Amino acid sequence: MPEQSYYLGVDIGTTSTKAVLFNKAGEIKDSHTVFYPLHTPNQLTAEQDPEEIFRAVLTAVRETLRKSDISKESLKLLSFSSAMHSLIAVDAQGELLTNSITWADTRSSKHAKHIKENLNGHDIYLRTGTPIHAMSPLSKLLWLQDEKPEICQATAKFISIKSYIFHKFFGEYVEDHSIASATGLFNLEQLDWDQGALDVSCVTAEKLPRLVPTTEQFTGVAPEFAAFMGISEDVPFVIGASDGVLANLGVNAIDPGVIAVTIGTSGAIRTVSPVPKTDPKERTFCYVLTENHWVIGGPVNNGGIILRWLRDEFASSEVETAKRLGIDTYDVLTRIAANVKPGADGLLFHPYLTGERAPLWDANARGSFFGLSIHHQKQHMIRAVLEGIVFNLYTVLLAVEELTGEPARIQASGGFARSELWRQLLADVFDKPVIIPESFESSCLGAVVLGMYATGEIEDFSIVSEMIGSTHTHHPETEASNIYRELLPIYIRLSRLLKEEYESISDFQRKHMN
Questions:
Q1: Domains delineated in the chain
Q2: What phi and psi values does residue 169 have, to the nearest 5 degrees?
């Protein structure tokens, strides 16, 4: 009997790297996750150690394969998903000059504003599809030149975390079209670095990685790393794409009219178009999956990271309860929230603890509770936090609908999808059925499907419908949806009315920041 083939998807995320081993039917053979910190010494900085992440990639692959006990020969490929918007400076010897400056870093917010207002930011957005915001490497490059000119002078290459890892493996700096399309430096029509954006950034194309399609294959991984991971040196590495676009593929949301909702550390609303589209109001992004698949949507900073904040700062007793019961703390929090009526008795929460991207694109945005009264208790605040995260995603959906029309269906994924309350919240707030695939590992599965396509094992992406496993659907509950229809206009108006106050309070915070 011939040996079964296996395919490894590796997702390099903001808080962890996960490797998931699939067979051709999409069944998970094994997986392993390695966590690492996000360094936030102040409210503006969010960096990571590239070497720590590289070691996490090596360990995640090694441990997954070790636990699976498959032969080297049965592993057909590794394919990579990665978080977007990271920026790393390296010198001519490949030595790190900076940490990985992540999407959550907002030190360049004033430079983003300068690009928008004075450097033809609108035209750059229309060509590149990346909203002008502190998340983007374009804004980060201007910040580096202003604040750390000595680093810019010593830099040989500005790269992403995935480019750093592939250089470690293969000795060349490369960037896939998908990650490149999230930099603010990549021309969507030309599939090349955008000269206008380069002029603004004062960086030449020679200081950026070589651009390659998301299907590009590499073989001949450095022998010491192959030995450590337990793989053959000639197994293909497919460079893959960004985590967001691969999540669409991994939940079978690749046909026009299908919306994918993802909530992990951050969150996003995305749909696929056969051609690139940008928004005259600059609320949405447009990123590459392949030359025939363009992912349009909006990312939010504030997804699961807000729930982690809630746990760490307000739920010490719930953490202890969870430990005694041997269950996850988040399960305790969602059970508490489930006992509160939809709408949290009129308590609203804007989850802008790390500024916000879509649809506000305002790094100065700040979180707040609104409607708090004497009868509200901690359980109402927990419920309001969960609802606020989903309310915010709904406002992104409204922007996407203006470009692509009302969705035919909604597919949901991410760590939140394990929670029945979160899933029902999505259905009730969006007032539409929400479909949840059996597999929660959407970015890794998307990477594997893209890898199979790249290596010629499949002719198109239709196989993913057979690989995602059984699905279940949550339908909106009329009473809850009606309550949310009343609250959502208030929620949306507040975020608009507070724009000037967001800037004022963030200026105060920066002025008095320790």
A1: 6-245 (3.30.420.40), 252-299+343-513 (3.30.420.40)
A2: -75, -40
pLDDT at residue 216 in the model:
98
How much is the pLDDT for 2? Answer: 62
Least-confidence region, from 84-98, 261-275, 388-402? 261-275
Specify the 3-state DSSP secondary structure of 57. helix
Q: In this structure, are strands 409-413 and 434-437 parallel, antiparallel, or unpaired?
A: parallel
Q: Is the pLDDT of residue 458 over 90?
A: yes
Residue 462: partners with Cβ closer than 8 Å, 6 or more residues away: none
Question: At 88, which helix (H) or strand (E)?
Answer: strand 88-90
Average pLDDT over residues 310-326: 91
Residue-by-residue DSSP string for 349-370: EE--BTBB-TTT-BTT---EEE
Q: 125 forms bridges with which residues in the sheet?
A: none
Instruction: Please tell me the predicted confidence (pLDDT) of residue 175.
Output: 98
For the record, the structure tokens of 386 come out as 């969960």
**What's the CA gap between 242 and 227, in Å, rounded?**
27
Q: What 8-state DSSP symbol labels residue 96?
A: B
Strand order in the sheet with 28-35: 28-35, 16-23, 6-12, 75-82, 237-242, 217-218
Q: Is 288 within 8 Å of 214 (Cβ atoms)? A: yes
Question: What one-character DSSP code corresponds to residue 187?
Answer: E
Helix (H, G, I), strand (E, B) or coil at 15: coil
Question: Can you tell me the distance from the alpha carbon of 201 to that of 56, in angstroms, rounded to the nearest whole number?
Answer: 31
Range 314-322, long-range pairs (CB < 8 A, 24+ positions) = 314/378, 314/381, 314/382, 315/382
Strand 6-12 to 75-82 pairing? parallel
Q: How far apart are CA 426 and CA 423, in angstroms?
A: 5
Closest CA to 125 of 194, 208, 176, 175: 194
Q: What is the mean pLDDT of residues 185-200?
A: 97
Query: What is the spatial distance between Cα 190 and Cα 192, in angstroms, rounded to a whole number?
Result: 5
- State yes or no: pLDDT of 1 exceeds 70: no
Question: Mind listing the pLDDT tens digit for each residue in 116-126?
Answer: 999 999 999 99
pTM reported for the whole predicted model: 0.87
Task: Return the sign of the alpha-carbon dihedral for residues 174, 177, 182, 188.
Answer: positive
Give the C-alpha separation, 399 to 491, whole Å: 15
User: What local confidence, expressed as pLDDT, does residue 514 receive?
Assistant: 59
Q: For tokens 């999407």, name the residue.
A: 103
Burial 274-308 (b: 16+ CB within 10 A, else e): eebebbeebbbbbbbbbeebbbbbbbbbbbbbbbe
